[in-house]
Amino acid sequence: MNVQEKILSQITTDTVVLYMKGKPQSPLCGFSNTTVQILNACGVRDFAAVDVLADLEIRDGIKVYSDWPTIPQLYIKGEFVGGADIVREMYEQGELQKLLQSALA
């Protein structure tokens, strides 16, 4: 399985997948931490997290897969939602909560 197939498998196996630096309980960058905190504020604590620092092939591959240059990256139901700024903006507007509620229903 190549890295793109692995990523596709990851984002379609779990409803909510966050590619981040570190782990949810110990994020290793402020943007990853912010995204985890937003998910938690939405009541989502059980999500798949992929530590891109532990797998450089995934770290490079996810940027190609999404055509998005930065980490973290949030996926819901296999769809790329965005990075930390987009997630924060969606949360502030109430859009992320609706998307998550629908996806997890």
UniProtKB/TrEMBL annotation:
The keyword S-adenosyl-L-methionine does not apply. Residues 16-81 form the Glutaredoxin domain. InterPro entries: Glutaredoxin (IPR002109), GRX_PICOT-like (IPR033658), Monothiol_GRX (IPR014434), Monothiol_GRX-rel (IPR004480), Thioredoxin-like_sf (IPR036249). [2Fe-2S] cluster binds at C29. It holds the Pfam family Glutaredoxin. GO terms for molecular function: 2 iron, 2 sulfur cluster binding; disulfide oxidoreductase activity; metal ion binding. The keyword Metal-binding applies. Keywords: 2Fe-2S, Iron, Iron-sulfur, Metal-binding, Redox-active center. Belongs to the glutaredoxin family. Monothiol subfamily. This is Glutaredoxin. It comes from Marinobacter psychrophilus.
